[in-house]
């Protein structure tokens, strides 16, 4: 932890913890993308076989669906999905030394410190390296300019997907989230029908209901209250949104406005990423 503390006080790559530096540099990277391509500004991807694996970042407000779409792409592309939110929740459920400190931070809707995040991420990358993982889709990281700068010092990010959703829908979506206390899977009981207003189109999202064996075991996350959700969004806009500008200046960001729920958004996301044919080929092989 002392090394991580020194890292946050210095911009030199020599201060980056050896474990974190080694793990990221060894998770070799992605196909070449051209964010400014002439094909309607859609990125072009080569076949990842025989080349570096994807190294992507998913940005977006809490509850926008980063985990859902990053996880689906992880399965499609064959690279690990690493969600810092999951790492935090795993630590919270443990009896580790950080669990009590994290519980207080999360329940107040605050951002977890860089020091803690790097500690958890470093351990996850080391575990993946030992299993032969290559590449990654990062979800929920980086959240600050400092984190993005440090990430740039140790690896090259190929593409940043910035998911967007109107805020009133975001709040309703977060309040509908439920988790099965037995299997840990996430669901959503909200049936969203937002009206068109202020130039924004109408939007509908069907609930993602659990199977019968989970329906009686649903719990609500302690931090999914309206007060905490709105505080998370405020903190995000204040602290994390500048990260978008950081990657925008590098020409690596792809903006994607979610048109609705998964049935509407997934095929359009694949189209925006120029991966429609990739999914068809993978399905045929399977």
Automatic annotation (TrEMBL):
Its EC number is 2.7.4.3. It catalyses: AMP + ATP = 2 ADP. It holds the Pfam family ADK. Keywords: Kinase, Nucleotide-binding, Transferase. The keyword Cytoplasm does not apply. SUPFAM superfamilies: P-loop containing nucleoside triphosphate hydrolases (SSF52540). The keyword Nucleotide-binding applies. GO terms for molecular function: AMP kinase activity; ATP binding. CDD domains: ADK. It comes from the Eukaryota. InterPro entries: Adenyl_kin_sub, Adenylat/UMP-CMP_kin, Adenylat_kinase_CS, P-loop_NTPase. Belongs to the adenylate kinase family. Monomer. This is adenylate kinase. The lineage of its organism: Eukaryota, Viridiplantae, Streptophyta, Embryophyta, Tracheophyta.
